[in-house]
Amino acid sequence: MRSTPSYRMRRVNEAIREIIGTALAEDIKDPRIGFVTLTAVETSPDLSHAKVFISVYGKKADKESTLVGLRAAGAYLRRRIGDELPLKRVPLLEFVYDSSIDQGMRIDALLRSSEKRDEEEGGSAEREP
Fold first, then answer.
1. What does 79-110 look like in DSSP terms, one character per residue?
2. b/e sequence 14-36, b meaning 16+ C-beta within 10 Å
3. Contact predicate 52/95, CB 8 Å
C-alpha cells in the first residue's frame, strides 16, 4: 500500500510533470514521440527516482516507439528539471505506460454490452430480491 505523498512531494511531482510537458511541446522534436499525455509523476521519498506515467494515442507500436523516444530524451529532461527546480538531487526518470485509461475503456465497453444484452433479453424487468 502506497502512502499519500506530502504537500511538498505533490508540488514537486506536479512541477516535474509541467517541466517535462513544456519540454515535449517546445523543445523535443523526436519523431518517435507521438501524441503523448503525461498523466502523473510519482517520485521516491529521497527524490532519486521518478516514475512518469504517460498515455499515448495510437496503436501498440506507437506506444512502444514513444517510450523509446522518451527514454532517449531522459538526460535532456533531467537537465531541464535540474535547471528549473531547486532540488539537491534530480531524479532518474522512468517512463511508464499508464494503462488506467485502457482499463477504463474496457470496463465501459463491458458495461455497454451488458446493458445492451439486458435490453435485448426483456428490457428493464424488475429483479427479484
1. HHHHHHS--SSPPEEEEEE-THHHHHHHHHHH
2. eebbebbeebbeeebeeeebbeb
3. yes
Do the Cβ atoms of 32 and 97 come closer than 8 Å?
Answer: no
Rounded Cα distance, 110 and 29, in Å: 38
Looking at the DSSP bridge assignments, the partners of residue 53 are 40, 96
Give the model confidence (pLDDT) of 73-94 as tens digits. Answer: 999 999 999 999 999 999 999 9
Q: What is the pTM of this model?
A: 0.74
- Cell readout for 65 is 516507439
- Whole-angstrom Cα Rg for the chain: 20
Grid cell of 39 as nine digits = 498523466
Selected from 3.40.190.10, 3.40.50.1820, 3.30.300.20, 1.10.565.10, the CATH number assigned to the domain covering 7-120 reads 3.30.300.20
